[in-house]
């Protein structure tokens, strides 16, 4: 879930020189079925493969709007640091557009276009106080991404705002943007829905009307569906999403946040929730708390699923280190997604 990092001050401390974190830097951690590949606060991850390496983007932390990490093999990751200020994390979007307020930049995702790269992000709209979605561009996927826009790309003002934008290029080349209305904003107390809308070829403007695909109408979803990720495989469309409260409350053994999916007839639906949802959820033994805000990416002919979960102690209690990055292998059996631990590459 796109939420400002409560543990940003720990990220720089955990990511030592070169971005690596050693076991001695943290309290003993719980065993998990899918061990994290990056033990630093790195919420709402998105991964882009570019020129022989993988670039990961995440929600704001430690005064940085869009933090980044990189890897050449998916298993070993390093946090990126500012080349001019060695003690400061690299910021893929150091300057926000005029409509946005600093400190609330969530869930960045990047689209490659013929003109370069477009970064979709959630930020606080100063005028309304709502979270809204913007788009910024750069010739380099590491940034700096910039935007001259005076207003958000999309903001559903009557529905609580808009967060968690995710682009998708269909097999015919048409671009779409998926997003969530922030109806669980306490000021609005509305249902949450996942929407799809056509994008222009440069990825910078929307066309047509938004179409609702999924709504929080199942018990496991609680009051929230969010973090949409649309993919197409073999002519079939699958919309992954996360649901329920992203947090790990003191009253909970583990977080209720989880990941499910819906099958869709096309990029604009209609979509039907999978009957076996959620397919990725918290477990106590071994400990995995709040696996969600997933993204799917391909490398070669293989699919991978990245997500975050809460750092946990050996007793499966909050370790107060934020949300760690996980990557698992994704495969399909009769159209149903299957996940397995990441193998060394």
Characterization of the model:
The protein contains 1 helix and 19 strands. The chain is mainly beta. It has a single domain, classed as Tachylectin-2, Chain A. The strands form 5 sheets. A 4-stranded antiparallel sheet has the order 1-2-3-4, with no helix packed on it. The chain is globular. It starts with 7 loop residues before the first helix and ends with a strand. The model is unreliable at 2-24 (pLDDT under 50).
List keywords for this structure.
four-stranded antiparallel sheet; 2% helix; globular; 1 helix; 345 residues; disordered N terminus; mainly beta; single chain; Tachylectin-2, Chain A
Brief write-up:
A hairpin with a 6-residue loop joins strand 10 and strand 11. 2% of the residues lie in helices and 44% in strands.
Which word captures the global form? globular
Number of helices: 1
CATH topology: the name is Tachylectin-2, Chain A
Q: What string, H for helix and E for strand, traces the elements in order? A: HEEEEEEEEEEEEEEEEEEE
Largest sheet: 4 strands, antiparallel
